[in-house]
Inverse folding.
């Protein structure tokens, strides 16, 4: 997964879907820099016009009262469907906000029923009735998984799954526990994980605390290419290289595992008229754990909570 706009009313933001956005970087075209036009513009500069009547664009009928977009080369790149359509094996729903590649192939749309779509090696993936994103050659990049799929770790049916251009997994929601190799990071079923093009885990998110060695991590984390922890928020207090950090501290590590930066709230309070205040400590460390910089940000709300107002 703009995916700032599947500019459609069906979209409800969630962490997992937002995390997929950066994983669908495709090739040369400007509009493919980020997939999922529910969230960010991804068709580049276009000339838009409002349709006063239904209009045929290839196999699609674009809906009266909605916009179509044309790129600088005259290609229609966006359209909302007036009725169901079957295009290149895609059962497209009525009212589907749809993007097209310059070659006329579907880039993104919404399916009306489950269908099997192909990866570059012609492996089939069952995609459910939801958003789908495809490469210029028609190969699958993202969909809502519509049926169980072989492979480990196992992907959860009904959740989004995305693929790199070569067909390797880019991101999925786990349907079984999974331990990140080399880190001992134990993730439960339901956690979201992303991988780079080489198959190395890069980041993830879980709805419950997870453990990585002696650390308890809250929700999100990111990894270095070598598999070492890069960023995390603590789910429990911890001592690292001789320094005590509280729950909710945000930490950043070097690729060798040594602590590089930390950020955490040291004080919260209220002003006499009820304005909330917060002090946040920012620290950096050398590889031995010595503090190399330290400063505190003071934040104060501009207005008091309603109960304090007269």
């Amino acid at each position: 997964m703009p995916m700032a706009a599947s500019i459609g009313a069906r979209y409800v933001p969630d962490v997992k879907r937002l995390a997929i956005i950066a994983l669908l970087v495709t090739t040369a075209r400007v509009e493919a820099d980020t997939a999922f036009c529910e969230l960010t513009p991804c068709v580049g500069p276009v000339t838009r016009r409002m349709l006063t009547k239904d209009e045929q664009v290839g196999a699609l009928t674009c809906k009266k009262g909605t916009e179509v977009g044309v790129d600088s080369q005259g290609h229609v790149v966006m359209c909302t469907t007036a009725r169901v359509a079957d295009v290149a094996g895609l059962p497209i729903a009525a009212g589907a906000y749809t993007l097209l590649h310059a070659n006329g192939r579907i880039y993104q749309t919404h399916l009306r029923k489950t269908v099997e779509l192909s990866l570059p090696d012609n492996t089939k993936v069952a995609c459910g009735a939801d958003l789908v994103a495809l490469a210029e050659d028609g190969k699958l990049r993202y969909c809502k998984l519509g049926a169980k799929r072989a492979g480990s770790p196992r992907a959860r049916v009904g959740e989004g799954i995305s693929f790199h251009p070569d067909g390797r997994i880019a991101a999925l929601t786990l349907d079984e526990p999974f331990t990140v190799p080399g880190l001992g990071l134990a993730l439960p079923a339901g956690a979201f994980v992303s991988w780079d093009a080489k198959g190395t885990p890069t980041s993830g998110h879980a709805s419950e605390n997870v453990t990585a060695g002696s650390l308890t991590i809250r929700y999100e984390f990111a990894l270095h290419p070598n598999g070492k922890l890069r960023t995390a928020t603590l789910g429990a207090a911890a001592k690292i290289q001789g320094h005590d950090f509280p729950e909710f501290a945000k930490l950043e590590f070097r690729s060798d595992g040594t602590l590089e930066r930390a950020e955490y709230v040291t004080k919260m309070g209220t002003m006499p008229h009820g304005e909330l205040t917060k002090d946040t400590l920012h620290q950096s460390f050398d590889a031995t754990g010595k503090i190399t910089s330290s400063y505190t940000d003071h934040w104060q709300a501009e207005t008091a909570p309603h109960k304090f107002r007269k």
